[in-house]
Model the fold of this input.
Amino acid sequence: MYRNEKFNRWRRHPWHGLHARIDDAPEDIVQVYVEMLPTDVVKYELDKSSGFLVVDRPQRTTSSPPALYGFIPRTYCAEEVARRCPGVTEADGDPLDICVYSERHINRADIVLNARVVGGIQMIDGGEADDKIIAILEGDNIWGDAQDIADLPPIKVERLQHYFATYKMVPGKEIDIKVDHVYGREEALKVIAAAEKDYWNHYGELHEQQRS
Done:
């Protein structure tokens, strides 16, 4: 199922030790590390130093993600990702986020799965590009035939837009988040490629050191 490599007795870092792509798979299939579930009202996030999933903060509101929420390994949102987002000069400096729909409930995070990319949301948070890729679980019995964003009911995307537009809200305070632009599969693949390029520009030396 996953890239075949020599056995490593130590757990791999989910961001640096896994791969975005799977050998011999179509270009729209990516690996996903899942940080949060649709049932979570606590925000979990990968600790970049240790590779462990940690509690970032309890959500202030009752909002919870409408899909599995995580990131694509060996991606990074920096200059190349920002160039694909008109009106901004910076990205958020995190791995590329991805939301995955599954008909069957997956009831634990800190797992890896394969997903088919169908589109994305061009989110701008505080003037920084913070794209959210949208995908479906590979082999899903309900959503498995979806190839592009138009193949999903519009409400699926609307709920994601609402979640990301409101999950940082604090009563009495303004937030600067835009989630107006939704794009399809082809643009999503270009955003992923940009995030992969940003990763190698910023972290490629880690892998070069391992080879030497």
About this structure: The mean pLDDT is 92. The longest strand covers residues 111-125. The chain has one domain: 29-211.
